[in-house]
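User: Before I run my own analysis I want an independent prediction to cross-check against. Here's the chain; please return only the structure tokens and, at the end, one sentence I can use as a sanity check.
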Amino acid sequence: CSGRLEILHDRTWGSVCDAAFDQQDAEVVCRELDCGAPVQVLGEDAFGKGDAQMWTQEIQCRGDESYISVCPTSSSLKHTCTNDNDVRLSCSGYTELKLVNGSDSCSGRVERQYFSKWGTVCDACWDMRAASVLCRQLNCGIAVSVVGSDWFGEGSGEIWADVFDCDGNETKLSECSVSSWSRAECSHGRDVGVVCSNSSLAVHDGLVRLSGERQCEGELEVSIHQVWRRVLLDSWSLTESSVVCRQLGCGSVLNFSGSSSSSPEHSHECVTGFQCSGSEAHLGNCSSPQTLNCSSTQQLSITCL
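Assistant: Structure tokens:
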């Protein structure tokens, strides 16, 4: 799924000039080779120098074709190309993603297909931004929570430790840059799961969200009895904060503080009394809280690393 691109025409292999090759062409090449999505077009130092004659036409794919042979071509190249200008392309290799072992298709353990093998994804390589892109790709809304293997069980087979570096606005994971060089020690005990907003589990007790402008900071809300409630500062500590940051896939806790709520709709729905040991994968594993009137008590904001 990576190398110098050559195309067979009239029983002769020809190299393709990088000046006449774009993202849409790359999408079709990777799809035709059953290699997923393009990761990057590489420079002339990659994969050595070819000796095939240059392909004399400019490929003009829309990007949704199944084969490069059905793409339109222009009659001649506008550029002078040599084998130094051969297209050198790397495709991701993965073709499909799914959520398994959940209550529906919008929640479950994350599994991805790489070439023909299905495998799980390590929680060290996953965050809420990647989860949000996956939920969008699966037509499942947005991500509500990233959870550990205690929610949807441990998978079997391959474990993919690729890091998807998403900004959260992409429509599919193949648009995110991917690093295959995770140093995480992964096992099936660290298989990651995702709950999307369109899942029936999205109203599950113990799910958490932060209402700030950024993924990993803001006022904390917890789902209790299918209602999102703010959390009071009383009896809260760094221990509970670390569980929330872990549950959100946001690393470790940086700090937490109190703030007066500016949201009148939350004025009568607050919760307090969580007690965690710090090792829990999600807040639902901690001792049960009590619900009470918010009044004017300070409500909790958390910043995760």
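Sanity check: The chain has a mean pLDDT of 83.
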